[in-house]
Specification:
The structure is a single chain. This protein is of the alpha+beta class. Helix content is about 25%, strand content about 35%. It has 5 helices and 5 strands, in the order E-H-H-H-H-E-E-E-E-H. A 5-stranded antiparallel sheet has the order 1-3-4-5-2, with helices on one face. It holds the Pfam family MaoC_dehydratas. Belongs to the enoyl-CoA hydratase/isomerase family. This is MaoC family dehydratase. InterPro entries: HotDog_dom_sf, MaoC-like_dom, MCH/BMMD.
Length: about 160
């Protein structure tokens, strides 16, 4: 009988410093994504919700995708490849930037680089990994960057 294989992220030992992961497929942003995310998070910013208002605002003259949607989607795109089933906890974010807006109709492509890793000094069998995420639109323009620290499990046999 064939062995069942479950997709998972990486254990601590499997992360390699400077490794770059391209997360595919990309995610095309929609107006519905923007309105739903913005209202679910109680963000009343007219630049996300009011097309007539946004149309009058220079320099973009259009509704902008909620930057928190962009951040969440960028990180979410990395989960299957990096942390699915191996994550213990999200520890924090740093250096979050949005150098260019994302609009409905744009496609967000995410890449992640492993910046550093170290074993946890207080949690045996677990390690801390710092990941730098970059989101680009379909033209290759950087629309978001963030670093995040995660606590992940070590390989089961390594933690025994």
């Amino acid at each position: 009988m064939p062995e069942d294989i479950i997709q998972r992220g990486l254990y601590f030992e499997e992360f390699a410093a400077d490794a770059r992961y391209l997360h595919r497929p990309g995610r095309t942003a929609t107006e519905a994504d923007n309105v739903l995310f913005t209202t679910l998070t109680m963000n009343t910013q007219a630049l996300h919700l009011d097309a007539a208002f946004a149309d009058t605002q220079a320099p973009f003259h259009a509704r902008l995708m909620n930057s928190m949607w962009t951040l969440s989607t960028m990180v979410g795109a990395s989960v299957a490849q990096l942390t699915q089933g191996t994550l213990v906890a999200q520890l924090g974010f740093g250096d979050v930037t949005f150098p260019h807006p994302l609009f409905a109709g744009d496609t967000l492509y995410t890449e992640s680089v492993i910046v550093e890793k170290r074993l946890s000094s207080s949690r045996p069998g677990q390690g801390i990994v710092q990941i730098a995420h970059t989101g680009r639109n379909q033209d290759g323009t950087v629309v978001a960057t963030a670093t995040r620290s995660v606590l992940v499990h070590c390989l089961p046999e390594a933690s025994a």
